[in-house]
Structures are given as structure tokens and as C-alpha cells.
Automatic annotation (TrEMBL):
Pfam family membership, one: NAD_binding_1
Protein name per the record: Phenoxybenzoate dioxygenase subunit beta
Record-linked Gene3D superfamilies: 3.10.20.30, Nucleotide-binding domain of ferredoxin-NADP reductase (FNR) module, Translation factors
Domain FAD-binding FR-type: 1-100
2Fe-2S ferredoxin-type domain ranges (all copies): 234-321
Enzyme class: oxidoreductase
Record keyword Iron-sulfur present: yes
InterPro entries tied to this protein: 2Fe-2S_ferredoxin-like_sf, 2Fe-2S_ferredoxin-type, Beta-grasp_dom_sf, FAD-bd_FR_type, FNR_nucleotide-bd, MRET, OxRdtase_FAD/NAD-bd, Riboflavin_synthase-like_b-brl
Keywords of the record: 2Fe-2S, Dioxygenase, Flavoprotein, Iron, Iron-sulfur, Metal-binding, Oxidoreductase
Entry's EC annotation: 1.-.-.-
């Protein structure tokens, strides 16, 4: 982890703050590309992931924008309590939501704070001269971070705003209409609340968008129709040692690996962030994450150990560890 200082704190919208982070010695931070995020270890010890919301115009700084979530588990509340001069620790940037190609025509759709990873994408596409559209959905300009800045950005002509509280001037986005215009020629990148992303993806799939052109990043897991009471016990095998461990109905694979001093990093514990992604050698998986694509889940070569399980009681999942 890299020790950084909060250099600036700006209110970007109602309940949204932007933090500028940099090293105390004013030296460069590791570079990143559009779609990247950093892990932040807060003073309390909590670790959270936040998207880097602007490309680096100066290699000494990272910028994040954080919504104070009413259902916060502590992370966003603590971020909002930070002040200039506070010290936090961050990881090097990680990117599970990259642009497939800087040259491929793209459709960017943001819901609320989901605008953060899409802003650097728009900057990248604009610099490359690549055609794109950027649709930003929110309740109102007051709650939509960066909305006033985006209206004056170099790519302002590619922005379309959809504010549900202003039906006379913008109103809700007609998702089907927007998606139907780009089925054959664009990659789709969508980020925002879980239900928003799921709705956009459902429309895209109904319109026969190719799976490989659908890209999304969840900040939290959507509600899933899974009865945790139906969990069953299974086994997990470590390929390198041949060890086999029992995973009880009330345990995750991550829990069991930790019990036996086998380190696989875990962060969100919801199958969202991809931190615990592990290769699988054999075994039938019941995927409970929103990180892997449908195709990746069908291939069965990777598992999110924090939430996914074996399909059947007594099955063995062999991990490439």
C-alpha cells in the first residue's frame, strides 16, 4: 500500500465529495488507464474500492469521487469525514473495467455516481478521436456529480443528460431507444446502482447485443434470488499440495482458505470487485457473483471465492493454488 495525503476535498454534488490524493514528498504515483480503481485503507482499517475519476494530468495525483451512501457499511461515511492533511493508504491502480479498444465506437451509460469510471473513458476516447456517446442519468443536476463541468467539457457535444426530476427538459432515459441505435456498431460500458446496470443489460440482451460488447462495473451486488438456507457443504482442493478441505454450508471458500493459512485477497465479500478471483482446474461452480460475464461463468475456469460455491453437495472444486 502507498501512503498518501488528502491534498484537497471538494463538494461535487449533494452527498458527493471529490478527494485529491498525493504523496507527502510530492513524487509521482503509479500510472493507470481509464476504468481503473484503487483500494483505500481508511484510518479505521476499513478497505474500500473507488474508481479513479479523472485521467492523470499530473502524475503526482489521484482523484476519486465518493457518494455518501445512506446504507453505508462505514466506508463512504468515513471518506466524507476525512479532511485535508489526513493520511490514508492506497493500492496501485487495478483495472477490471478497461476500454476494450480506444479505437472502437463506444456507448457510455452512467447512473448517478457510476459516472466516475466513465469520465476517464470519455477523456481517452476524445483524445483518440473515437466516436462515442455518453448518457448520464440522475435525479437532478444538484445530485449529479460533475454535471456542470461535463456540459463544458471538450466532449460536451457527445453528452446527453437524463434527469428524472426534470421531465419537461430531459426526463428518464429511454433505454430501449438508446440501445437500439447502437446494437451493430458499438461497445457498451455501463456503471451505476446495481438495479440500473441490470436493467440496461437486460434491454441490451433482449436487443441481441453481443455478449462480448457488454461491459459493466457494479459497486454493490444486486439482489439475487438465492435462499442462503439452501446452502450445502462441499469440498475445495488445493492443486499444488493436494490438500482437501470441507466447506460447510455456512462458510465461504475464502473463509476456509483463511482458516488453513492460505492467502487469497478478499475485499467486498459480495462478488463485486474481483479481488478474490481464482483460477479453477475442475469442478462445477454455482456462480453467485456479478463480476464474471455470462461467457466466463459458462466456461467455469474462474471463481469468486468470497461468494460462489460448488453446484452440488459433496462436489469438489479444485483451485489452481
Amino acid at each position: 500500500m502507498i501512503e498518501v495525503v488528502v491534498l484537497n476535498k471538494v463538494d461535487e454534488a449533494a452527498a458527493v465529495v471529490r478527494l485529491v490524493l498525493g504523496k507527502a514528498n510530492d513524487t509521482a504515483l503509479p500510472s493507470f488507464e481509464a476504468g481503473a480503481h484503487i483500494d483505500i485503507r481508511l484510518p479505521s482499517g476499513l478497505v474500500r474500492q473507488y474508481s479513479l475519476c479523472r485521467l492523470q494530468s499530473d502524475p503526482r495525483y489521484y482523484e476519486i469521487a465518493v457518494l455518501k451512501d445512506p446504507q453505508s457499511r462505514g466506508g463512504s461515511t468515513e471518506v466524507h469525514a476525512l479532511t485535508i492533511g489526513d493520511v490514508v493508504h492506497v493500492s496501485e491502480p487495478k483495472n477490471h473495467f478497461p476500454l476494450r479498444s480506444k479505437e472502437a465506437k463506444s456507448l457510455l451509460i452512467a447512473g448517478g455516481i457510476g459516472v466516475t469510471p466513465l469520465l476517464p473513458m470519455a477523456q481517452t476516447l476524445q483524445c483518440a478521436g473515437t466516436p462515442f456517446e455518453f448518457h448520464y442519468c440522475g435525479k437532478s443536476p444538484r445530485t449529479a456529480a460533475f454535471s456542470s463541468i461535463l456540459k463544458q467539457a471538450s466532449f460536451a457535444d457527445k453528452m446527453q443528460f437524463h434527469f428524472s426530476s426534470e421531465p419537461q427538459t430531459s426526463g428518464r432515459m429511454d433505454i430501449r431507444s438508446v440501445l437500439s441505435q447502437h446494437v451493430a456498431d458499438s461497445d457498451l460500458y455501463v456503471c451505476g446502482p446495481a438495479e440500473f446496470i441490470s436493467s440496461v443489460l437486460e434491454y441490451a440482451q433482449a436487443l441481441n447485443w453481443p455478449e462480448e460488447k457488454l461491459h459493466r462495473e457494479f459497486f454493490a451486488a444486486p439482489a439475487m434470488d438465492i435462499d442462503q438456507g439452501d446452502n450445502h457443504a462441499f469440498q475445495v482442493k488445493v492443486a499444488s499440495t493436494g490438500q482437501v478441505f470441507e466447506v460447510a454450508a455456512n462458510q465461504s471458500i475464502s473463509d476456509v482458505l483463511e482458516e488453513h493459512a492460505l492467502f487469497v485477497p478478499v475485499s467486498c465479500c459480495e462478488g463485486v470487485c474481483g479481488t478474490c478471483l481464482t483460477d479453477v482446474i475442475s469442478g462445477d461452480i454455482e456462480h453467485r457473483d456479478v463480476f464474471l460475464s455470462k461467457q466466463e461463468k459458462a466456461e467455469g475456469k474462474q471463481i469468486l471465492t468470497c461468494c460462489s460455491r460448488a453446484k452440488n453437495a459433496g462436489d469438489v472444486i479444485e483451485l489452481d493454488l
